[in-house]
Amino acid sequence: MTARASAGLRRSRPVRSRPVRGRPNVAAGLLTLVWLVIVGVPLYAIVSDSLQPSDQYTAAGPLSPPHHLTFANFGTALANGFGRYILNTAIVTAVSVVLTLALAVPVAYAIVRSRNRLVAWTFRMFLMGLAIPAQATIIPVYLIITRLHLYDSLTAIILPTVAFALPLSILVLCSSLRDVPRELYEAMTLEGAGSVRLLWSLVLPLSRAGIATVSIFTALSAWNGFLFPLILTQSASSRVYTLGLWQYQSQFGAINVPGLMAAVLLCALPVLVLYLLARRWLIAGLAGIGGR
Q: What pTM was estimated for this model as a whole?
């Protein structure tokens, strides 16, 4: 090998770059610490207060660590009907999510695939629903529910919840369905696939992130709903947990804070588990990344 060739070989070798160590972002670290305190202190207070007796809470204060752990507050909450309230809330949430997806997915599929002007106007009508708050329609909703003889039932909560979840759900699903490549539609159409098979075999698997996002937002809206249960229900048999927390006080107005915190913790655990299970799909749907 000549000297010129060896010199060219040395020049062609990749030069290893040293890793550049950036300066630590002190401001971001401090802001993260502040945010951790803002989020962590209420969570600590809920767990700590739910595990201590009422007299210890009154004497030591809300942020004091429990010296005598007790689970009697959870038994008190369940004895006051929170087991039934959580079950009613779970039924309302599950049915609301299923109905919302059953209506929103076909509508979003038709909006994305159709070139009809009527379908485009339908999409605009759904978008207008985002600007209408539930508080502005509570009187017409109450009249409709009473005329349908659905007052004081779980159905009276489910139907308005689904109606107000549809606009945002359709908007999110339309954005997710538009990311499906048109070539895949054409390839399956050439193989003889119809609209139903396209929806079932192509659209649903490639839109899992958007479906998961819609499911979580609908579930959170139904789980934490307060206005519709307050106006459209009355008896304890159809009461959800938000009304149970609101009415969880004595006749003299004194609140059993440790018992109330235990009830709050019982009601928050299902939502926390749901978020932990579907966190990846939720983040992917919010970022506009299709789940694979």
A: 0.78
- The tokens describing 38, both together, are 């803002």
More confident residue, 195 or 266: 266
Please give the Cα distance from 105 to 103 (Å, whole number). Answer: 6
Give yes or no for residue 7 having a pLDDT over 60: no
Q: What is the DSSP letter of 134?
A: G
d(CA 171, CA 272): 25
Q: Write a three-state SS string for 73-116.
A: HHHHHHHHHHHHHHHHHHHHHHHHHHHHHHHHHHHHHHHHHCCC
What amino acid occupies position 273?
A: V
Contact 214, 100 (CB under 8 A): yes
Delineate the domains of the chain, giving CATH numbers in brackets. Answer: 86-255 (1.10.3720.10)
Quote the DSSP letter at residue 236.
G
Residues 6+ apart with CB under 8 A from 9: 1
Buried b (16+ CB within 10 A) or exposed e, 188-200: eeeeebeeeebbe
At 22, the pLDDT band (50, 70, 90 cuts) reads low
